[in-house]
Design a protein that fits this description.
2 copies of one chain form a homodimer. Chain A has about 350 residues and is an alpha/beta fold. Helix content of chain A is about 40%, strand content about 15%. Chain A has 3 domains: about 45 residues, 434 Repressor (Amino-terminal Domain), CATH 1.10.260.40; about 130 residues, 3-Layer(aba) Sandwich (Rossmann fold), CATH 3.40.50.2300; about 140 residues, Rossmann fold, CATH 3.40.50. At the A-B interface, helix 4, helix 5, strand 2, helix 6 and helix 11 of A face helix 4, helix 5, strand 2, helix 6 and helix 7 of B.
Chain lengths: ~350, ~350
DNA sequence: TTCATCAATGCAAGCGATTGCACATATAAA
DNA sequence: TTTATATGTGCAATCGCTTGCATTGATGAA
């Protein structure tokens, strides 16, 4: 292919201003408003004029300036998506769900990651508000304890839907999982399979998800008449170091755990690896259950039992709720609880 | 917990219009231009006035309207990121690299996925152009063969940097991997380890990355004096079905492959799983090499040899290049080749 | 023929910032 | 004291599009 002609480099430091509706209007000797209406397919414009205008727009290579349009319309057709991190299976699925609905309805999405920093989350909310997104869907950072930044968002009249990690003190629509039940089912499953000394590698309890896990862990152990060793009930930031250290400590105790419930799949994979290094047979000596899923869990040996969360569904639902608020401004504060599934694989099931 | 007080619902269908610089100006009896300058910390405004204005802005809960600002300034401080899919380790890393540099320099990023559809890619480019992003960083879809949409983008004076999957016919800055070398090193490694019948599970050759793999595969086999069985040289869309089918066919042949080079890590993981189901010992009966990496490769047994691509680095570099073009409008058309690393793990190395 | 009605288009005022230029003080230099 | 030079603000146009209202000419009803 030859680009000799087209590749004429434009050296001007300033962008050559592009074609506007005024250019079209001038060429056709009509009013800019007519051009605007025609391009928006208003039915107040005759078909003949529309055709003429559309053709001329095509000819001149006109491209709508959304910035101007947004300013005038007071709506950007953009929705902000705030997630802790982007490289995570669950959030990827949620984003996919959001995007699916959004793009169907003509909305763009602006993704930002908090990297689990409250400070960054605050800043992101300010930016979302400044860019005048039409709405925000967010999953709070682990550090987030207060809601001042959410209240500000609300004050700027930007609808907000929270998912997964939420703050119950803040009034808005929420799409969540029954985290208590997630843990309850996990513990019960392990109990039924004959495991007695169950450890919990949990997240920081400042976050609702993890505090609910923690509560369910204690309560269910009691219900199942299983011992709750305080040192088996860990809440940490779940870094690789945290996990290694926990494993080291646990397996140097007199009574060692025979099952570990891990807050997420990354941690579970690491636990599985470390367990193998300790020559522990899975699931005979040690069971592993992960409270979130990702494909890799099915590729390791043995496959790891995990809780499947409906990420895409959560995304879709959140987006639909948000659209309702955007369109009809009917603020609702109800919380939707999505179903999950405990998928039992070989890491936690054997005949004692 | 009680929500009674906070739940005062605002029923108004219309967003209460927010505070503008004019409101601040009126209250303080100064000109809007003064407010604008003060908030932008212009040094033409006295410190006293600035203080007054900033305080009033704070008091009224003022929040800059970026839309208006963008229209006036003719720049959005937003850069568009176009990737095939979001749920992919490599692209996640690239996005992280981009975001790191971008947020340091005060840029937001707008992420869109093509889902490997050329049609969607075209549409995304139109949107990017309409929203007047200051620049675009893109990795082309597998289907993309033509560059009309890129030329249009260029015509709207939006700088573009391509990474990984590029089109050599299109003039712009590119950040890529030496795909030929990736394959060459993989084949040579397998040859050195004593494998003879190497199969290639490749991607569609319409895409430069995969066609380079394919060429390197043939050439390196020849160089290493190894047989090239045409049926071992596969180019497909790499769906799960494609892979299953390929495996079925290959292992029903008279001469079965003793090594498989898989175009990406998902495929490699699946191959590894299927191989186990066929009771093939890895790496004794079958070696596996993946041409991209993800953490899961280190969790499976045996760990899978793979090519580590510098995703974050690619992202950072692309963003830096883009910023140069945005800032100085110095169009350069050079291609940067980033180093990769073949990490040899247990799936491809044993003592024959 | 006259008046109401309607369809098609134009006029002009926004939207909320930014910015070149003019203008008023104040200060310094002559 | 007069003139040059800063310094700090205000004026008004502008960015490109949207939209309420006015206008025009044509059509149909009275």
């Amino acid at each position: 292919m030859l680009f000799l002609h087209k590749s004429k480099v434009q050296i001007n430091p300033m962008a050559k201003s592009s074609i506007t509706i005024n250019d079209i209007a001038r060429e056709l000797k009509v009013a800019p408003s007519t051009v605007s209406r025609a391009l928006n397919n208003s039915r107040k414009i005759s078909e003949a004029t529309k055709k003429k205008i559309v053709e001329k727009a095509e000819e001149l290579g006109y491209n709508l300036n959304m910035v101007a349009s947004s300013l005038s319309r007071k709506t950007t057709n953009t929705i902000g998506v705030v997630i802790p991190v982007i490289n995570n299976h669950f959030y990827n699925e949620v984003v996919n769900g959001i995007e699916e609905i959004a793009s169907n309805r003509g909305y763009r999405i602006l993704i930002s990651q908090t990297k689990e920093s409250f400070h960054k989350e605050e800043e992101i909310m300010r930016t979302m508000s400044a860019t005048r997104v039409d709405g925000v869907i967010a999953c709070l950072s682990r550090e987030t304890k207060t809601t001042g930044h959410l209240i500000k968002l609300e004050k700027s009249n930007i609808p907000l839907v929270l998912f997964d990690r939420v703050n119950y003190d803040f009034q808005c629509r929420k799409v969540i999982i029954d985290n208590f039940s997630v843990m309850e089912q996990s513990v019960s499953h392990l109990a039924r399979s004959g495991y007695k000394n169950i450890a919990h590698l949990g997240g920081p309890t400042s976050c609702n998800v993890y505090s609910e896990h923690a509560r369910a862990f204690s309560e269910t152990l009691k219900k199942e008449n299983l011992p709750l060793h305080p040192q088996y009930h860990l809440a940490s930031d779940i870094t690789e170091e945290d996990i290694s250290e926990a494993m080291k400590i646990w397996f140097s105790l007199k009574v060692k755990p025979d099952a570990i419930i891990s807050v997420n799949s990354n941690a579970a994979l690491l636990v599985s690896k470390l367990a193998k290094e300790l020559h522990l047979a899975i699931p005979e000596n040690l069971a592993i259950v992960s409270l979130t899923s990702e494909p890799a869990l099915q590729y390791v040996e043995p496959q790891i039992t995990s809780v499947e969360l409906p990420g895409t569904d959560i995304g879709r639902t959140s987006m639909k709720f948000l659209l309702e608020e955007i369109r009809y401004r009917n603020r609702k504060f109800d919380t939707t609880i999505k179903p999950f599934q405990l998928i039992i694989r070989n890491s936690s099931f054997h005949n004692h």
